[in-house]
Structure formats: C-alpha cells, structure tokens
Amino acid sequence: MTIRDREGRIAYANRTALASMGFASLDELHSRSSRSIMEDYSVEDESGMPLTLEDVPSMRMMHGESVQPLVMRTTHRETGDVRWRQLKAAPVTDDKGELIAAVTVIEDVTAVKTAETRMRLLAESGRILASSLDYQQTLRNVANLAVPVLADWCAVDLVDANLRREHVVAAHKDPAKVALAVQLRAMGPEDFDPQEATGRVLRTGVSELYSHVTEQQLSSGAQSEEHLRLLRALEIRSVLVVPMGVPTRTIGVMTLVTAESRRRLTEEDVELAEQLGRRAAVAVENARLHTTLSRVADTLQRSLLPDELPEVPGWEIASLYRPAGGEERVDVGGDFYEVFSSDAGWFALIGDVTGKGVTAATLTGLLRHGAQFASRHDPRPSGILRQLDEALRSRSEDSLCTALCLQLQEVSISVSSAGHPPALLVRSDGSVHEVPRTGPLLGAFADGSWSDETVAVSEDGMVLIYTDGVTESRGERERFGVPRLKRALFEHARSSPSELLARLDAILDEFRTGPRADDIAALAFRPARR
Amino acid sequence: MQSQFRVDVRHEPGGTVIAVSGELDLASSPALEEELDRAFGSDEPVVILDLRQLEFMDSTGLSVLIRAHQTAEDADRRLWLVKGPPQVQRLLTLTGVGERLAVVDTPEDALSGG
C-alpha cells in the first residue's frame, strides 16, 4: 500500500510495499524520484503494451483522470525478476472535499497471472500445433509458440538418428532478428558436440537451465571471435534448453533465450517449456509422417499405373487419370485401366476396385496383369471378365470391383461390362449411344455371367469409357452426372481423343467444388484417320 | 452436401426392420454393418433393410449389401431390400446387385411375406 501526494511523490509506503520495491526504508525510497524507480523496471500491461508513470492509477487520479484497477507486469532490468501486480487507487480528500492524496492498494497477483499465462500458452499451443500437417509450417509454428510470452528467442533444432543437425528454425518478435538467429545457429557445429548444452540435452533428454548466462559460458559456446561478438551483442540473459521427445527418440531440442526483455528464466519455466517441447515433438513427427505417407502413396500410385499407352494399329487412343485428393492425398486409389494385346487382338480394360488404400491399389495391379493372362485363355471380353471374377472370388478377403473390357476390332468394338458405367459411343450423326451393361460387378456372386456386345464404330465415331469418379464429381448443387458427360462428348466428338479428354478434365475441374473425393479415369478411342 | 448417417432398428412381429438415412459411404458403412451382423446373429429369420431415406450410397455401402446378401444365404435367412431413391437404385441396377436381392416397395410388403 502506498500513498501518493499532490506532487506525485510517494509520501508513504508500508513495509510490504517497500520490500517489494527493494527498499529497506522509507528514506531510501525518498532518495529517488518515482520516475527513476520505475526506470529500474520494464513495465507492461496485460496485453504487453509498455506503461509509464502517467498510466499508474494514483498518478491518473492526482491528474484528475478516470481511474480503473490496473494489472501490470514488471521486469526488474537488473535481476530479471518478473512480478505481476494489481493496483487499485482510492482518493483521500480533506474536509473541504479537495483531493489531497491517492491511496494505492497493491496486490501481488504473480502466482495467479503466471498460471493463467501458462494455461493460455498451452491451450494456444495445442490449437496451433494441430492446425497444420505441413512440415515446414509446423516447424515455424513450434518456434513461434514461446515467443514473446515465454522468451525473446526460440530456436528449434531437429536432428536425425545420428544426431546430425537436420533442420533449424528460429523465432523472435522482430522478424529482422530471425535472420540473425539462423545465421548464428548455422555457425554452430554440424554434429552436436556432446559437451555443449544442446548436445547434452539431446543425449540425456534432461533439460538445462542457465538463469544468468555468464561471459565464460558465452565464450565456451562460441565457435569463433565473430560468433562471440554476435552472441555478446544479443545481451543474453537466460537460456533454457529442453528436449523434444517422442516415445522412440529425442528428435531435437528447443532453446529458449531471454535477452532484451531482461526477464530471467527460472525453474518454474522449465516445466512449461518441457510440456511445449513434448507437444512440439509430437506435432513435428506427425507432420513428418504425413509427408512420408504422402510420398509413399504417390510412389505406389505411380508404380501401379500403366506407362505410356501403346500404339494400337488402326486406332487413336488417349487416357485421363486424376487421383482423388490431389496433392494432399495420403491414400492410394482403386481406379485402374490397361490397354494390351494378345494373339486375339487389342483390348482395353477399365475398372474401379471397391475401397481405398494399399489393398485396393495392389488389387488393381493384379487385375490389370491378370487380364493380359486371361486373354490368352479366353480372348473374348466376357471371358476375360469371367476369369477376373473367379480370381477375385477366390481371395480370402472381400474383393469387389466394377470393370469394363472391350476389344478393339477393325471397324467395331466388342464390349463386356461388369456392373460398370456403360461405354459411350458417339455416332456420325452426333447421337450418343450407351452400350448396355452385360453382367454384375466382379467378385460378388457365384453365378455371375457376362456377354459381349458388338457395336460398329463409324469412321468419325468416338468411344469413351470412364469410371464413376467422373459422373459422381460433386459440384455446387449437384453431381456431374451422365447427361453432362454426354454433352461434352457430343460437343467435342470431332476433336482427337486427347483433346476431348483434356477438355473433359478442364470441365470437371471447373465444375468441382472442393478436392476430388474419388479417382477419375477415362479412355477415349477413335478409328485412326487414313 | 454431407448428411448425417443414421441407422434405426425396430423389431416387428414379421421381422427386424433396419432403416437407414443420410449417406452410406466409407465412414458410415461400419455402423450399418454392425446392425446387420447383430440382426443375423440373432435368430430373427427375416431382416428388412429399408433404403427409402438413403440419400447416397457408394461402393463401400454396396459391398455391405453384398456381404449381407451372402451372410443371409449362408445362414438361411431372408434379406429384403426396401427400394431406395433413384440415385441409390441406379447404383444397384448398374452393378447388377439389385436384381439379385429381393426388393420390395415398402417394409409392410416384406413383413407380410413379400
């Protein structure tokens, strides 16, 4: 509790107030002006905005301004001690009602505010770390978590299994200083020296706190004169290094540094920092796994797709394939197609395996290659489908797929379909004809049967086979549907197969809202121009 | 365009009616599968799957139906399908599943013996 007089001087302070300001007696307090006392500290309000003597409630009251309770954070520049205080001022008036002094009751709310700040930081960290699966973004988010609330600087070092530095990210309130931090970090040794603090923390998984960094510690950590000069210029006060660990290993360290704020990091900060370190490690690992998974899916997908379409004598062909999910996908799709030849001639196959994931994807490989073998035993499209059906039904786990197989003949095609969207044929008069389906989907029923439908293809006719990802594409109000597909076919029937599919790709892209929910595959054929 | 998926089960004298609504896809299929397994696990001889309120069904939903058909055959039960809206029926017709399953227009038709 203090009493401020009309001159703005602290006329009285009780023992508690004196002690918290670091004075032994009232005389000692009077030997300094209020302003100079305040300069011993860095003072901010709850939102981090700097406060001056004029903002203090008792001063405002003495100047006749409106007064509200004020919560302030003070950091002693010398010791780095941080305290939170709530100040409430009440007027003292003389018997004429004139304001003669302001009494301020000071409540130390350090414990409460510190706990509150920490909870908020942890809650925020949970939200921020969950917000991105992108590796680079997650790393940046991690480094920014602790700044500026907990520290002035935060550096994250990730290492590989051999403790070689893999990644370094740094954060500071001032973006200009971030570049400096990265530069400094880069001056460190590539391998973590086990003797140096960060190396030790990596190895032992035990945090290290340097509440008052000494000149000697700076020197021993510096790699060169230049390095030491830069380190000194930072005015480092405290350093706290915590491990970032996941169950299997410590993947890196998080280094917190206080400097210009003059705040001292203490034992109480260690637990919070360790919690952040743990959460950060999990977030980074998740992001890494996601990226790896994505890459694996990509590789798998590409290896399971047919290479260049072969040249089919007498026919122009083109293909379109767009996997579900686009760039962000981590799963592999179930659509497949193949164009192959056997003694009996040239065949095209398109299909859609139920489900997603590795199982569905490997099944597509089986079916594509299986079809080629099957064509040697029974060269009719229906025969190929029948054999694929048998192969699927003989598997122990449920394997279902829709498929369409056709043989490219001289001026006609022979088509057999198993529960698949019908092949579309554009005739020379512009009409679009659906080849009727011939049998149930593959792998479902013991008594399935399929037949072949032979259809003439005119000189300027075009054939399109596709998977339901095309017609099921979601737009703003409805799905793409067969009518739109037929219209696209009609409008571009005079184009080449590759032009048609390019147009279809563009139309679908424009129609679609959101990422692709399902794979899209299509094959287009036209008798070759003579 | 996402809809919540719901499964409602009621036991009638003539059989168990499992009514589905919303979208039947990869995410919601397990819930339906569970109810079907439960129904076939009991000694209820007639199971009726009511698709009238289904807004959408994809291939995973389809595979649940196919498996249910197989289970019913193996366990010597009757599985009826109450016809769904056009987009659902289209998938059942296209894949040839529709003509292999016993399809009725209302649950009452099935409960009274079809």
Report on this structure.
The complex is a heterodimer of chains A (530) and B (114). In chain A, the strands form four sheets. A six-stranded antiparallel sheet of chain A has the order 2-1-6-5-4-3. Chain A is an alpha+beta fold and 530 residues long. Chain A has 16 helices and 21 strands. Chain A has three domains: 2-108, Beta-Lactamase (2-Layer Sandwich); 114-295, 2-Layer Sandwich (Beta-Lactamase); 305-527, Phosphatase 2c, domain 1 (4-Layer Sandwich). Chain A starts with a strand and ends with a strand. Chain B is an alpha/beta fold. Chain B has one domain: STAS domain (Transcription Regulator spoIIAA, 2-Layer Sandwich), CATH 3.30.750. Chain B is built from four helices and five strands; from the N terminus they run ββαβαβαβα. Chain B has helices at 29-41, 59-74, 86-94, 107-111, and strands at residues 6-12, 15-24, 46-57, 78-82, 102-104. Chain B has a five-stranded mixed sheet with strand order 1-2-3-4-5. In chain B, α3 links the parallel β4 (78-82) and β5. In chain B, α1 (29-41) packs parallel to α2 (59-74). The longest helix of chain B has 16 residues, at 59-74. The radius of gyration of chain B is 13 Å and the shape is globular. In chain B, 39% of the residues are buried. The mean pLDDT of chain B is 89. At the A-B interface, loops of A face α2 of B.
Number of domains of chain A: 3
Q: Count every helix of chain B, treating DSSP H or I runs of 4 or more residues as helices.
A: 4
Which stretches of chain B of 5+ consecutive residues score pLDDT under 50? Answer: none
Total of DSSP H or I helical runs spanning 4+ residues of chain A:
16
- Relevant CATH superfamily of the largest domain in chain A: PPM-type phosphatase domain
Number of DSSP-assigned strands of chain B:
5
Indicate the low-confidence ranges of chain A by residue numbers: none
